[in-house]
Amino acid sequence: MHKNERSLPETVLVSIRGRNARKAKSEQRKRTDNTEMVVASYNVHKCIGVDRKFDPERTARVIREISPDVIALQEADNRFGDRAGLLDLARLEMETGLVPVPITGNGKGHGWRGNVLLFKRGTVRDVHQIKLPGLEPRGALVAEIDLDEKPTLRVIAAHLGLLRHSRSEQARAVLDIMSSADERPTLLLGDLNEWRLGNRSSLNTLHTTFGPLPPAVPTFPSSLPLLALDRIMANRHGMISTVEAHDTPLSRVASDHLPLTAFVRL
Predict the structure, then answer these.
(1) Burial environment of residue 67 by CB neighbours within 10 A (0 to 12, 13 to 18, 19 or more)
(2) Endonuclease/exonuclease/phosphatase domain spans which residues (predicted)?
(3) Is the separation of the CB atoms in 225 and 19 below 8 Å?
(4) Is residue 46 helix, strand or coil?
């Protein structure tokens, strides 16, 4: 039984009270050794910051701050028109070593329905572009990556819908992906757009594969994070050791979401 049945005002109060403790913990945590990976999820808000400035270079600087081994980006393409990608991926690769998982049929876009998955030091074995159910055009990008000197990792990068009913359907679609796959280590990264905890959460169905879920860490809005919209989950107990918001002066301005990071051991 899930006991976290907080209302929105209660969730906001708990988040405000715990923010300083989370920031102190984040400042203390460092990568311990080469067997540990840094993974992240970041809704870049089409590279528009809370100051309403379009600044892809600022977004790239936040990614460089994180220094991830794997990162899922949401809203990295224009939503309308030619849906062109917004980042300079060639420069990002030169500066960070991150390369995008290749996809098809995206025209000028970086990703699949706004989802971009970047990684370094490995080879992509397989990629699937999944259309998620719901009224909005949402999708999931599923990649199997042979990481250098590590087991093959499956990553599901997703951006779920704004409507609760759609999110429930989309969460079940993610489980359908897992039910037809083997048992290799799997991470689910993305903006899942769900702040509710406990029985009212549209993500409850994920417990069967990704539970117990890691702590929900507030990432939205970036200037005063109150809601845990972004999540990182694993299908194996003990894979994720720490989940925290990347809360810096730059990240608080660069998007309306803070990046979410996790330390992962395969």
Answers:
(1) middle
(2) 40-257
(3) yes
(4) helix
The edge-to-edge listing of strands for the beta sheet with 230-234 is 122-132, 138-147, 152-159, 186-191, 230-234
- Range ranked top by mean pLDDT from 49-53, 175-179, 198-202: 49-53
- The mean per-residue pLDDT over the stretch 10-20 comes to 57
Which of the two residues, 216 and 16, has the higher pLDDT score?
216
Task: Report all structural domains of the chain as residue ranges with CATH numbers, in order of start.
Answer: 8-27+37-265 (3.60.10.10)
Q: How far apart are CA 76 and CA 79, in angstroms?
A: 9
Q: Tokens 């003990």 identify what position?
A: 238
Q: What is the pTM of this model?
A: 0.88
* Whether the Cβ atoms of residue 141 and residue 124 lie closer than 8 Å to each other: no
Q: Which residue blocks in 36-116 are alpha helix, DSSP H? A: 56-66, 89-96
Residue 257 amino acid letter: H
Residue whose entry in the numeric block shows the structure tokens 């694993």: 234
Say yes or no to pLDDT of 28 above 50. no
